[in-house]
Write a structure and sequence with these properties.
The chain is about 50% helix and about 15% strand. With about 450 residues, it is of the alpha+beta class. Among the domains are: about 100 residues; about 150 residues, Heat Shock Protein 90 (2-Layer Sandwich), CATH 3.30.565.10. Helix 1 runs antiparallel to helix 2, helix 4 runs parallel beside helix 8 and helix 5 crosses helix 6. Keywords: ATP-binding, Kinase, Membrane, Nucleotide-binding, Phosphoprotein, Transferase, Transmembrane, Transmembrane helix, Two-component regulatory system.
Length: about 450
């Protein structure tokens, strides 16, 4: 099922809803105003006819008195007016329908409206007829085509055109409101993203909307159960490794004595093999203890540590070991302290695992380079077979070793280092072949700049 965004759906829905409501309201308003416009235009037709009727009667009676048959059949104006566009045309007609008087833009042909009082529609024209009390004459007023429709169209545009400018503003306001309303969800998401095996603290529900509080409470209960389960698992692993370390060390010591006593006998080789197996088991238990400490959050401590001093100490320790001392090449890079925020024990465990990894997977007798800098970095490089790029990405997973089961080690070393570095806010970079070489393996501890 495709994922979807609450914010995007709310913004789109509300903007479409606002636009739809605006258009619906504009349509309803247009219908109501159209009704009012029809009434106004009809009233204008009727009022014009009623005002013209007494004027026409008066003019015709005056002409009858003067018996002036040659006079033009137009109303006499007390003032001269310029030619202009008329929106209403009128005709004064007698009882037989002959046109007695008309406006200057009106047709000389009689209007098609019937000779009775009231409204009449002829296509796109509307007429109103007013009849004199003695029914001798009548006045018909015609409305020009499209005048009424133009007024209604202009009104419709006046209602809808502002929507084009207001809709983007409404969209911005809705977007801003939705972002503010959903900001607590983003805060909760950020808090959840910070939770991991090293940080299972409950999320503070204070200041969150009431709708999110039940979810946070359920999430906190889940975190509590998960934290208890992880602590029990880590405690079991740590206690088991601690309880086994001393007996296995004692068993190895006894095996070494037995092997020494059996020197020259057929069982000597088997005793040496037993010593080797117990040694490997002791190293595996030591790795389990280191892993338990790393998972307990050892790298979260922000003690200020001189990585140059710690690295020099670890390199010196390996330099004193038989068969390894001559292979250690240490480059301090600088005489000044390089201070970073990390627990010194955590840094020592990380360096020890990288050194063990470099010696175990490097070619016998080849040097292992340990360098500090530039900046808060530590480089450990060996000379060995190239590790494929597809394998590099998986080497920090637990129980993963280059070359599958043929490679020595427990498969936990790089996982422990990666976990410690992530807790410290840094990272572990792996490269093969080593930079500037045709083969080898390089591990770099990169610490955040202060």
């Amino acid at each position: 099922m495709r994922s979807w965004s609450i914010s995007r759906r709310l913004v789109v829905t509300l903007v479409v809803l606002i636009g739809g409501i605006w258009l619906a309201g504009s349509g309803i308003a247009a219908l109501m105003i159209r009704h009012e416009i029809d009434e106004v235009f009809d009233s204008s037709l009727q009022e014009t006819a009623q005002r013209l009727l007494p004027l026409a009667l008066d003019d015709l009676r005056r002409r009858d008195r003067e018996d002036d048959e040659e006079s033009e059949r137009t109303l006499v104006n007390p003032f001269s007016a310029e030619e202009h566009e008329e929106y209403l045309h009128y005709q004064v007609r007698d009882a037989q329908g002959d046109v007695l008087l008309r406006s200057h833009d009106a047709s000389a042909e009689p209007f098609p409206a019937p000779l009775k009082r009231g409204y009449f529609d002829d296509g796109d024209r509307r007429y109103f007829t007013e009849v004199a009390p003695d029914r001798t004459i009548l006045v018909q007023v015609a409305e020009l085509p499209a005048e009424r429709q133009e007024a209604i169209s202009a009104l419709g545009l006046g209602l809808t055109v502002p929507l084009l400018g207001l809709l983007p503003i409404a969209a911005f306001v809705v977007y801003w409101t939705v972002r503010r309303a959903t900001h607590p969800i983003t805060q909760v998401q950020q808090q959840i993203a910070k939770r991991s095996g090293e940080n299972l603290e409950p999320i503070d529900p204070r200041g969150l909307p009431d709708e999110l509080v039940p979810i946070i409470q359920d999430m906190n209960r889940l975190l509590e159960r998960l934290k208890a389960a992880l602590e029990a698992e880590r405690a079991f692993a740590a206690n088991s490794a601690h309880e086994l370390r001393n007996p296995i060390a004692a068993a190895r010591a006894q095996a070494e004595l037995i092997a020494e006593n059996l020197r020259g006998s057929p069982d000597h080789a088997r005793a040496i093999q037993l010593v080797g197996v117990l040694g490997q088991l002791g190293k595996r238990i030591e790795k389990m203890l280191q892993l338990a400490r790393a998972e307990a959050g050892l790298g979260l401590d922000r003690t200020e540590t001189d990585i140059l001093a710690v690295t020099q100490l670890v390199a010196a320790d390996y330099a004193r070991r038989p068969q390894l001392g001559e292979r250690v090449v240490f480059d301090p890079g600088t005489a000044e302290p390089v201070i970073v925020a990390i627990d010194p024990d955590a840094l020592g465990i990380a360096l020890q695992n990288l050194m063990d990894n470099a010696f175990a997977h490097g070619r016998p007798g080849t040097p292992v380079s340990v360098a500090v800098g530039p900046g808060p970095r530590i480089h450990i490089v060996n000379e060995g077979p190239v590790v494929g790029s597809d394998e590099l990405a998986d080497l920090t997973e637990r129980f993963t070793r280059a070359g599958a089961t043929r490679a020595p080690g427990t498969g936990l070393g790089l996982s422990i280092v990666d976990q410690i570095m992530r807790q410290a806010g840094g990272r572990l970079d792996l490269a093969s072949p080593a930079p500037g070489k045709k083969d080898g393996f390089a591990a770099t501890l990169v610490f955040p700049a202060r």
